Amino acid sequence: MNQTRTTAGGKKRDEGAASGKCTVFCVDEKRVRRGRATLPSDEQIRDIADTFKVLANPTRVKIIRALSAGDMCVCEISEVVGLSVSATSHQLQQLRDLRLVRSRSEGKLVHYSLRAPFVASLLDDCVRHVSDQGARR
């Protein structure tokens, strides 16, 4: 149920608690400073957002999960994810650009491994989260 509230500035607002918004504008400067202190630099924030953009692709999530079991060559990864070797290489390049995986040549084969193990842990947490969500439905 929405209610009309008067803010500290005397303006009227028609917002209720159910909207998820405050009904008055009130700032605790100590909390604001504490929140700001936790923020990484703008450059780091952009890099983090770019990492999540790359992880937003289901194929790349599959690749990372597969590599969490150990090193694999491109041919093996392509079999796991069900793509051509060329398409798999393209996806791996994006992961390499963000330093999430590394490659090494072994003769005519190129093997990949996770360079950033945190990403496997992140995906494990995501699997638990979505599994918990499904159990609650």
Features:
elongated, three-stranded antiparallel beta sheet, about 140 residues, Arc Repressor Mutant, subunit A, two-stranded antiparallel ribbon
Number of spatially distinct domains = 2
Radius of gyration: 23 Å
Number of helices: 6
Distance between the amino and carboxyl termini: 26 Å
Structural class: alpha+beta
- State the CATH architecture of the largest domain: Orthogonal Bundle
Reading off the top of the CATH hierarchy, the class of the largest domain is best stated as Mainly Alpha
Major beta-sheet overview: 3 strands, antiparallel
Q: List the helices and strands in order.
A: EEHHHEHHEEH
Layout of secondary structure:
Blueprint: E1 4-6, E2 12-14, H1 29-37, H2 42-55, H3 58-67, E3 72-73, H4 74-81, H5 85-97, E4 101-106, E5 109-114, H6 118-136
Antiparallel strand pairs: 1-2, 3-5, 4-5
Structure characterization notes:
The structure is a single chain. The strands form two sheets. Strands 3-5-4 form a three-stranded antiparallel sheet. A two-stranded antiparallel ribbon has the order 1-2. The protein folds into two domains: about 35 residues, no CATH class; about 100 residues, Arc Repressor Mutant, subunit A (Orthogonal Bundle). The radius of gyration is 23 Å and the shape is elongated. About 55% of the residues lie in helices and about 15% in strands. The mean pLDDT is about 85. With about 140 residues, it is of the alpha+beta class.
